[in-house]
Amino acid sequence: MSGDRPTAAMRQVSWAWVGLIALAAAAILIPLMFGGVAQLNLLVLVLLYSSLAQAWNILGGFAGQVSLGNAAFFGIGAYTSTMMLIEWNLSPWLGMIAGAVLAAVFAVIIGYPVFRLGGHYFAIATIALGEIMLIMFANWGFVGGAVGLSIPFIRGEDRRPADSWLFMQFNLNREGYLIIGIALAALVTVIAILIQRSKIGYYLRAIKNDELAARTLGVNVLRYKLIAIVISAALTAMLGTFYAQYLLFIDPETTMRLELSVLIALVAILGGVGTVAGPLIGAAVLIPLSELTRSALGGAGNTLDLVLYGGLIIIISVFQPNGLVALTRRGGKGRSTALPTDRQEAMAEEAPLLGGGDGR
Amino acid sequence: MSALLEIHGLGKRFGGLAANRNISFDVNEGEVVGLIGPNGAGKTTLFNCISGFFPPSSGSVRFAGQDITGWPADRVLHAGLARTFQVVRTFPDMSVRDNVIVGAFARTRRLAEARTIADELLAVTGLEYLAAAMGNSLTIAEKKRLEITRALATQPRLLMLDEAMAGLNPLERAQAVELLRTIRGRNVTIVLVEHVMEVLMPISDQVVVLDSGAKIAEGPPATIVNDPAVIAAYLGGKYRPRLEATDS
After folding, report:
1. How crowded is the C-beta side of A137, counted as CA atoms within 13 Å?
2. How far apart are CA B169 and CA B183, in angstroms?
3. Residue B41 pLDDT grade (very low, low, confident, very high; cuts 50, 70, 90)
4. pLDDT of residue A88
5. Phi, psi (degrees; rounded to nearest 5) at B66
6. Are the Cβ atoms of A197 and B90 closer than 8 angstroms?
7. CB contact under 8 A, B169 and A216
8. Residues of A at the B interface (Cβ-Cβ below 8 Å)?
9. From residue A13, how far is each of A9, A196, A328, B119 by CA, in Å?
10. A119-138 and A258-271 helices cross at what angle (nearest 10)?
């Protein structure tokens, strides 16, 4: 009977685990095989963007609230830990927590009014909020303004740059960044899976499907949207701290520009919105592609990135609106294959019965 | 003991239009109450005022002894009053089972428990064979049945159904009536909106008739069908003298 049949959610979860294990295996094996700095950099970026997209997905995918301003949370995370490090010499691990809390508070303050807007207006409002943050930080002298902030090197006894787990900085043996990247990606993925399988996940999907119907079933829509944006913002901010420690330099452009927000959303959309495996697949495809074009085309690559993103959005929306993850499902065409076989059998049984009624 | 649902002097204005005017009636625990009236009589507006979709402009709604006037919809649901929609609002990209699980989460935080509630109700309403089908793949009759199942999963004391029979063929309609009897057997009070009188009459204990936003009659079905005001509302005022003539 249909009770034993795996549901769509269960299939997604198992694919997420497959993706996660594959990523982890690739992350460990590839640097061992090639050992190059470039490969390691690419892997860290894939992990970072898959995690950012996963965090975006909780709000944009599960709850259907498309944000094009998630870079603002990313920037808050990067700036909070960096300022705490520079001003008070506090560990970025503490800064990571502080940044997450700050981003969560910011998310509630903006979410409360902005969630009153429906559909595209929400997306537009998030673009505006991201841009406001960018301009504010670019003109705020205390945080370095448009010039940005450099994170001082951790130095060993010989006064040369060194490694430190406490200060999340690896100048000699950069595999440390990879390990932290894997840990963060695992954390974000596990949180996404837990949400998907909980009351919150069901309520967010209900809100995405039909807000009014969700309300009649007792869902406090605003409250659950706020929960989604708080989790998304906090996780994005944590990744911002990691990024600051990875680059050891931040400015408003690298941490808060609109293209970053768009790329985060695009990774999730390419992979498959609202699925846990989607962001992992999306990042594994898009980030190497974008790095390749950048290196192949040199200085011109920067704007060609945008051409690539735009082209991809068109291709996805025309040919694969459910994202690459839908290719893994039966038939590979997503929504239309949603009819399980027992449904078809049931319809076949029903047909003669209903024949009389239809012929009236 | 007072009634489960008490509507007192309820009114709703949209600008210059009075969609509901001074409507009062009670629904007792365990009853099936039919709410009828021609199109535009204000039935759905009344539903929306009771279930928290718009605040009423005047009057009060009491449910289980509590004043719930103007409460938001999700709070009304948690008080034990569930509803369905005239135009079905199934979650299209969720399976039938997941649709019902969303309803069940109104009474539990745990997924395992919500699943148990959902599976039990899918068996009761006869939808278990569709459990894995997606919401958007159902027929209208199945979607209406799913909406009722989903509302039942919230474990309401009162279920308000907005045109649960509209758009169904005769066989499906008979099945829907059977379902209502089952629901009633589970100690759920039912308020049923319908503009087709014949559907409602055999299963209702009480009928409330609305016309042009006001209550024009109330009573058991047998009395209602012979009420001159009701006949006038359905057939038009010019039939009233003729009916009165044949009566005498």
Report:
1. 27
2. 21
3. confident
4. 92
5. -110, 140
6. no
7. no
8. 1-3, 5, 7-9, 197-199, 202-203, 205-206, 208-210, 212-221, 335, 338-340, 342-343, 346, 353-354, 356-358, 360
9. 6, 9, 13, 21
10. 140
**Looking at residues A79-107, what average pLDDT do you find?**
94
CA angle A321, A325, A328 (to 5 degrees): 115
Work out how many CB contacts closer than 8 A connect A with B: 126
Pick from A191, A237, A249, A184: nearest CA to A45: A184
Tokens of residue A241, six digits: 């701290």
DSSP assignment of A243-304, as one string?
HHHHHSEE-HHHHH-HHHHHHHHHHHHHH-TT-SHHHHHHHHHHHHHHHHHHHHHGGGHHHH
The full set of domains in chain B, from first to last, is 5-247 (3.40.50.300)
Residues on chain B touching A343 (C-beta within 8 angstroms) = 129-130, 132-133, 137
Tell me, what's the pLDDT at A35? 62
Contacts of B54 in chain A (CB under 8 A): none
Res. A13: pLDDT tops 70: no
In tens, the pLDDT along A135-175 reads 999 999 888 888 888 888 888 888 888 888 888 888 888 88
ipTM of the modeled complex: 0.89
Q: Among the ranges A98-107, A247-256, B129-138, B210-219, which has the highest mean pLDDT value?
A: A98-107
Closest chain A CA to residue B85: A213
Which residues of B fall within a CB distance of 8 Å from A210? 89-92
Distances (CA, A) of A124 to A55, A60, A252, A269: 19, 13, 20, 17
Position A190 pLDDT exceeds 70? yes
> Which pair of tokens denotes residue A193?
């899976």
- Show the domain range for A303: 9-358
d(CA B127, CA B139) in angstroms, rounded, equals: 12
Whether A275 is in a domain gets the answer: yes
CATH of the domain at A145: 1.10.3470
Give me the number of domains chain A comprises.
1
Spatial distance between the Cα atoms of A84 and B19, rounded to a whole number of angstroms: 60
Tokens standing for A200?
């919150």
Q: pLDDT tens digits, residue range B113-168?
A: 999 999 999 999 999 999 989 999 998 889 999 999 999 999 999 999 988 887 78
Tell me how far apart the alpha carbons of residues A165 and A169 are, in angstroms, rounded to a whole number: 7
Are B135 and A339 in contact by the 8 Å Cβ rule? The answer is no
Which residues sit opposite B27 in a β-bridge?
B5
A283 part of a folded domain: yes
- Rounded to the nearest integer, the mean pLDDT of chain B is 87
Q: Tell me whether strands B158-162 and B81-83 are parallel, antiparallel or unpaired.
A: parallel
